[in-house]
Amino acid sequence: MYRKPIIAAFAVVVALSSFAADRSDIVKSYALKDGSTLHVFRDGKMGVENPFGRAVDVKAGQVLEAKDGSKLTMNGNEVIRLEQVLNEGRRGH
Questions:
Q1: Cross-referenced Pfam families, in alphabetical order (predicted)?
Q2: How far apart are the first and last CA of the chain?
Q3: What is the pLDDT along the chain (93 residues), one digit of tens a residue?
Q4: Which one in 57, 60, 78, 91 has a CA-CA gap of 20 to 30 Å to 40?
């Protein structure tokens, strides 16, 4: 009776784990004025890492200021994807 939903849930977990990101997915990083870092992925989507090394939520379209004074517009909001990249080396495997 509950077998099909469990199998379906397992299939979703397996499928999502195949989309795990790694450092090579980041093509460019920008130091921001507030001490955060903006990371740009291969597909142009972006994620922001706070000064403590955690991925943070930033609205798509928000304008961020780099340390050099240039303005960068947030494209996407890849919090989970960036968190996976940042935690990649911390797993203890």
A1: CopK
A2: 36
A3: 566 666 655 555 444 444 556 788 999 999 999 999 999 999 999 999 999 999 999 999 999 999 999 999 999 999 999 999 999 867 655
A4: 91
